[in-house]
């Protein structure tokens, strides 16, 4: 049976008045119930979590980017703090909510509870549970949540009294801010109390550390000179500088003396040397020498060289030259004395420098210990200064009472005007729509289960299926005339034309008349008496084989075609017959020739079972739709069949996978042997023997081999619907 959609929705139209009246009645009832419900009002207060410090009040060591901003976990923690029992209890006491009739209604014990309490059964609710009842009542009406992606906390409180809803929401927000300020004040006071003894202790430690530094400096003679350096190190630096200067003077004196000595030894004029010319006496003698040369030159113009005047001047010039050389020797002696003095000074300075090096090395070792003591004293001093700064800030905030909370109420609750529950108009409309939908569904279900919206399913043949199994009288079945089977076509001809020829084969008049009588018998087969004998089990024909396969519920059918491709054409007709009856069927071509796949796919050489066996293709690549029916086919494929059969062990797994997806898997094994058939047979498998010519020796040999191997009892598949063939001990015989 199928569902008749038209009849299903026609039942709605027939019952439209009943559905409409029922919906109106349910809507009126819902409106009446909402009118009896006391309205509830909801007020909300919004709190923004932010730092309360400004740029002027922020501590000196806290930067603007270091202000405390809570993350999402911190915001959720504040939400839990607002809904905590301690905070709500303080609000209950502050507003005296214990005397409110609405909140204390659940705290009033019933008469039965009072009676049990009087006789000592149970607890006395007046003494122990009244506060808990009121707290639970407040908590049930309170809703605290955080606005997504923000630092805003919303406090909502609902009540029948709008003024009470607003006052409780504001009181909870005020108490939360006061709690934040109290927590900050307590933390500030605790910090000041902790810092005060720490500062006193640190002051003493700083004093002791500085005393150790001074004592060690005095005991180790580490006097400080200029540039905050140790005196020994500073003297070593100065002495090194003086030694370098003395060495330079000595080298200069030795060089000057060497040049004068070389000039005197060679007899060269010494008056041109810088060291000689620096002497004032040499300069005056040089001036006198120049004057005498000028006088001799002037007198030589008027007097002869032997003149006494010229001779006297020349004598004076010779004495002057001797005197200059004598003075040069004195200069040489002075330079040598100066070099010797510089040499002695250098030796003395070197000795002093070595002594200072030893002192400086010792001072360096002592300075290491001194620096360690100074570092300790400096660290203690800095920590003391930091504590002093924090203590002064904490003390000033405590004295002045300036402790801003990290929360601000930016939207206080006002007295609500309209109730949030019940919304009579929207809820009435919703009740009408819901009742209309509910009654419509009930009407549809009633029409469905009563059978008014059902009709017989199309494309079904219950009479044929029942006729196969129902008992009928054998004597009423007329014996059909045997049709004449034409000669088989050559193997080279395609299978599709052969299948068409077999399907359109003309029947003799006796066969047509037998068909009509058989149809009448099939129609009345349901009403046949139970004690009548059954029809022969060997009755063949494509339609009958399809019916038997559907009735048996087989998941796999293996077709053996001893006559080759001519008999395989019957497999194509069988598969298409099953597909026309709505069976999800797939045909696996394992004939070896591949003619079945080419006939159903219009000669297209597509991948198939051989490609699947060698894992060259997937299932989606080898399954193709039949071009002339709703059936599907896995052709032979384009891989080498001999190599593919080496992986025949994967064939049962492939067939099991196909059986899970299709109603029936038909395997055409062609002229397979008994050994080859064993790979294809399994539980729930039907074996079919395709026969075109019953007298063919190959058919008889195959039937005999199947019988001898004790395989499944095969079903005969022939194109002659009215010819009765059956198997008897592996032999094909015609019914009498």
Automatic annotation (TrEMBL):
Keyword Kinase: no
Membrane topology reported for the UniProt record: Multi-pass membrane protein
Pfam family, one: Wzz
Domain Polysaccharide chain length determinant N-terminal: 2-95
GO cellular component: plasma membrane
Gene3D superfamilies assigned to the protein according to its UniProt record, in alphabetical order: P-loop containing nucleotide triphosphate hydrolases (3.40.50.300)
One GO MF term: protein tyrosine kinase activity
Localization per Swiss-Prot or TrEMBL: Cell membrane
InterPro entries: Bact_polysacc_biosynth/exp (IPR050445), EPS_ExoP-like (IPR005700), LPS_length_determ_N (IPR003856), P-loop_NTPase (IPR027417)
Protein name as it appears in the record: Exopolysaccharide transport family protein
């Amino acid at each position: 049976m199928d569902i008749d959609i038209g009849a299903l929705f026609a039942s709605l139209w027939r019952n439209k008045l009943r559905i409409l009246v029922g919906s109106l009645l349910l809507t009126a009832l819902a409106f009446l119930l909402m009118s009896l419900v006391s309205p509830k009002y909801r007020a909300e207060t919004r709190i923004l979590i932010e730092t309360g410090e400004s740029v002027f009040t922020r501590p000196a060591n806290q930067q603007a980017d270091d202000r405390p901003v809570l993350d999402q976990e911190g915001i959720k923690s504040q939400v839990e703090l607002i809904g905590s029992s301690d905070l709500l209890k303080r609000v209950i006491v502050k507003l005296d909510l214990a005397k409110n009739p609405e909140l204390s209604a659940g705290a009033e014990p019933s008469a039965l509870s009072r009676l049990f309490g009087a006789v000592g059964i149970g607890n006395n609710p007046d003494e122990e549970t009244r506060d808990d009842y009121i707290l639970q009542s407040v908590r049930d009406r309170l809703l605290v949540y955080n606005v997504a992606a923000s630092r805003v906390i919303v406090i909502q409180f609902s009540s029948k009294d709008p003024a009470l809803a607003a006052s409780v929401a504001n009181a909870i927000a005020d108490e939360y801010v006061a709690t934040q300020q109290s927590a900050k004040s307590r933390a500030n006071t605790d910090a000041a109390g902790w810092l005060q003894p720490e500062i006193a202790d640190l002051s003493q430690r700083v004093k002791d550390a500085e005393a150790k530094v001074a004592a060690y400096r005095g005991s180790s003679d580490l006097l400080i000179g200029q540039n905050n350096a140790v005196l020994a190190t500073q003297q070593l630096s100065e002495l090194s500088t003086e030694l370098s200067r003395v060495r330079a003077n000595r080298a200069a004196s030795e060089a000057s003396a060497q040049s004068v000595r070389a000039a005197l030894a060679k007899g060269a004029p010494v008056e041109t040397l810088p060291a000689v010319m620096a002497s004032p006496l040499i300069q005056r003698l040089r001036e006198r020498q120049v004057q005498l040369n000028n006088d001799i030159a002037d007198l030589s113009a008027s007097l002869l060289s032997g003149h006494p005047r010229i001779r006297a001047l020349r004598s004076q010039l010779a004495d002057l030259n001797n005197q200059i050389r004598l003075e040069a020797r004195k200069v040489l002696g002075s330079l040598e004395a100066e070099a010797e003095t510089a040499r002695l000074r250098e030796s003395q300075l070197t000795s002093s420098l070595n002594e200072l090096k030893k002192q400086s090395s010792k001072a360096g070792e002592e300075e290491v210990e001194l620096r360690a003591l100074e570092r300790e004293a400096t660290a203690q001093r800095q920590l003391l200064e930091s504590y002093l700064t924090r203590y002064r800030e904490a003390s000033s905030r405590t004295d002045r009472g300036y402790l801003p909370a990290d929360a601000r109420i930016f939207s206080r609750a006002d007295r609500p005007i309209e109730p949030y529950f019940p919304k009579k108009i929207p809820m009435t409309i919703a009740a009408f729509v819901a009742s209309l939908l509910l009654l419509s569904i009930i009407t549809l279900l009633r029409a469905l289960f009563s059978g008014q919206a059902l009709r017989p399913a199309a494309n079904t043949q219950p009479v044929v299926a029942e006729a196969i199994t129902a008992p009928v009288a054998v004597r009423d079945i007329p014996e059909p005339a045997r049709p004449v089977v034409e000669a088989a076509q050559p193997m080279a001809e395609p299978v599709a034309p052969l299948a068409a020829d077999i399907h359109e084969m003309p029947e003799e008049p006796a066969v047509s008349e037998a068909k009509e009588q058989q149809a009448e018998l099939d129609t009345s087969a349901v009403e046949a008496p139970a004690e009548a004998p059954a029809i022969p089990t060997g009755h063949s024909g494509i339609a009958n084989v399809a019916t038997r396969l559907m009735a048996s519920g087989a998941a796999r059918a293996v077709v053996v075609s001893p006559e080759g491709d001519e008999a395989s054409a019957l497999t194509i007709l069988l598969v298409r017959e099953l597909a026309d009856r709505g069976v999800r069927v797939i045909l696996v071509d394992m004939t070896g020739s591949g003619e079945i796949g080419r006939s159903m796919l219009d000669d297209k050489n597509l991948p198939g079972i051989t490609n699947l066996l060698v894992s060259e293709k997937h299932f989606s690549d080898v399954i193709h739709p039949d071009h002339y029916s709703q059936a599907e086919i896995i052709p032979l494929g384009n891989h080498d069949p001999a190599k593919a059969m080496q992986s025949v062990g994967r064939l049962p797994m492939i067939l099991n996978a196909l059986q899970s997806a299709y109603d029936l898997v038909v395997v055409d094994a062609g002229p397979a042997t008994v050994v080859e058939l064993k790979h294809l047979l399994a539980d729930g498998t039907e074996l079919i023997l395709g026969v075109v010519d019953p007298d063919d020796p190959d058919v008889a040999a195959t039937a005999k081999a199947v019988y001898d191997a004790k395989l499944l009892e095969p079903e005969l598949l022939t194109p002659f619907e009215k010819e009765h063939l059956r198997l008897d001990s592996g032999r094909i015989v015609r019914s009498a």
